[in-house]
């Protein structure tokens, strides 16, 4: 790893510039904190949480009233029990409260304030505010993830995502640009079709590739079909959607590489990253994550519940016990020894949950190898219309025969573990949502 030096003839050890020094100073602390026992991390976290709550209490009327009801007093201890008595704010509540959650006078030391909005696939977007300080943490946690994964910074990074143009850059981007010397990066917009993406990847021959899981899966399947090798590829990186075991398997099959996934959101930043053991560790220095059951109590390891986020450094629009919309399974301690809490699995959203007539619910999965051999299907999406009605949207290279349709229906009835009334609908394409995400199962009755 080569640290960038601001003094050209003093490269070893390097003397970083101001931005590099700031980034490394934070990284030094993150390196130390991650090995602290969980209860000590929690204690320090509540110390920082108190600062956010005090700011919200003094400047934002909604929080002043809410915190007062929970017994908050500036300068006095606010216990975990008191914190857990604060109301849960879901997306609808945040949309409804809108500007009432915004700090009218953010401390100048936090830098500029930026307005953003989620580009969610359904409903009204959530408007949020961030600061230079929150961006600083986003970059630090991105760099930490590179370090956890022991990436070779001299490699070439390929990125396929939304909101980018096709270009080549000299470094991997903001997280490393002023800190560490990296190899080049190349970006391509995710709207490019899969064959074009594969040609582009073949041409660039990257060491690493970052994109959405659904895109990785489509690329891996096509690469395996056409024997497109990426000889330098060492690791895949994914974000923005649920990463299935099936996708991991397809990527191993196509390129013999593993995927490192990042759990993040536009409004909260980096929530959890995977360590070398594959566990998702909550980035506790930046946010407090709760996983709660239907009664609002904290889930035990192995239990699935709703994810609540509390941001620790966002003073522009503090998100406090914000229900982000995902369900996740709480995890036990990780053998790596880090004290950062573990999320075992991220399950998805309510709209990705299958509901059966007997009242049970689960997140279904549709491994490609179960249905891909039945018909020349290029893309498939399962939509639950009512408790016992399912529509399979299918994009195929030709019309399906009656036999293929009935085999497909039978296979999906087995996969869904219920004799749903299934109809197959032929479609010209299954577009990605506004934020370029793809869901293979959508429930319209959630
Ligand atoms: Zn770990």
- Name of the top-level CATH class of the largest domain: Alpha Beta
User: Are any ligands bound, and if so which?
Assistant: zinc ion
Structural class: alpha/beta
Q: What percent of residues adopt helix (DSSP H or I)?
A: 25-40%
Number of helices: 11
| Rg calculated over all Cα atoms | 23 Å
> Which spans of ≥5 residues are poorly predicted at pLDDT below 50?
none
Domain count: the total is: 2
- Largest sheet, described in full? 13 strands, mixed
The global form is globular
Architecture of the largest domain, according to CATH? Answer: 3-Layer(aba) Sandwich
Per the CATH scheme, the topology name of the largest domain is: Rossmann fold
Number of strands: 21
Q: Give the strand content.
A: 25-35%
Q: N-to-C terminal Cα separation, in Å?
A: 48 Å
């Amino acid at each position: 790893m080569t640290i960038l030096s601001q003094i050209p003839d003093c490269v070893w050890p390097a003397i970083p510039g101001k931005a590099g020094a700031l980034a490394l100073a934070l990284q030094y602390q993150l390196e130390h904190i991650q090995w602290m026992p969980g209860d000590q991390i929690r204690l320090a976290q509540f110390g920082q949480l108190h600062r956010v709550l005090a700011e919200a209490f003094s400047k934002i009327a909604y929080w002043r009233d809410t915190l007062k009801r929970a017994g908050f007093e500036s300068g006095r201890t606010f216990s975990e029990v008191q914190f857990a008595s604060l109301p849960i704010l879901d997306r609808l509540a945040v949309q409804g409260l809108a500007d009432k959650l915004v700090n009218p006078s953010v401390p100048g030391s936090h830098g500029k304030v930026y307005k953003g909005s989620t580009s969610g696939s359904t409903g009204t977007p959530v408007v949020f505010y961030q600061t230079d300080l929150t961006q600083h943490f986003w970059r630090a946690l991105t760099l930490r993830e590179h370090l956890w994964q022991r990436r070779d910074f001299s490699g070439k990074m390929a990125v396929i995502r939304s909101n980018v143009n096709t270009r080549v850059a000299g470094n991997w981007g903001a997280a490393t640009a002023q800190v560490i010397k990296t190899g080049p990066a190349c970006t391509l917009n995710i709207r490019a079709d899969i064959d074009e993406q594969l040609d582009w990847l073949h041409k660039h021959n990257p060491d690493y590739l970052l994109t959405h899981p659904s895109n990785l899966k489509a690329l891996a399947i096509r690469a395996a079909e056409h024997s497109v090798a990426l000889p330098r590829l060492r690791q895949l990186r994914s974000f923005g959607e649920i990463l299935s075991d099936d996708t991991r398997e397809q990527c191993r099959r196509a390129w013999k590489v593993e995927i490192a996934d990042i759990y993040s959101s536009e409004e909260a930043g980096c929530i959890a990253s995977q360590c070398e053991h594959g566990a998702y560790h909550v980035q506790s220095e930046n946010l407090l994550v709760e996983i709660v059951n239907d009664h609002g109590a904290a889930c035990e390891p192995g239990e699935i519940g709703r994810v609540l986020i509390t941001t620790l450094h966002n003073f522009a629009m503090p998100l406090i016990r914000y229900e982000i919309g995902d369900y996740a399974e709480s995890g036990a301690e990780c053998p790596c020894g880090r004290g950062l809490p573990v999320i075992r699995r991220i399950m998805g959203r309510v709209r990705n949950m299958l509901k059966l007539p007997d009242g049970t619910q689960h997140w279904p999965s549709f491994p490609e190898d179960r249905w891909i051999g039945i018909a020349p299907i290029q893309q498939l999406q399962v939509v639950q219309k009512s408790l016992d009605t399912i529509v399979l949207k299918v994009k195929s290279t030709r019309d399906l025969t009656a036999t293929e349709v009935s085999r497909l229906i039978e296979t999906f009835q087995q996969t869904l573990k219920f004799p749903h009334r299934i109809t197959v609908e032929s479609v010209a394409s299954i577009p990605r949502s506004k934020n370029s995400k793809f869901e293979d199962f959508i429930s319209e009755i959630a």
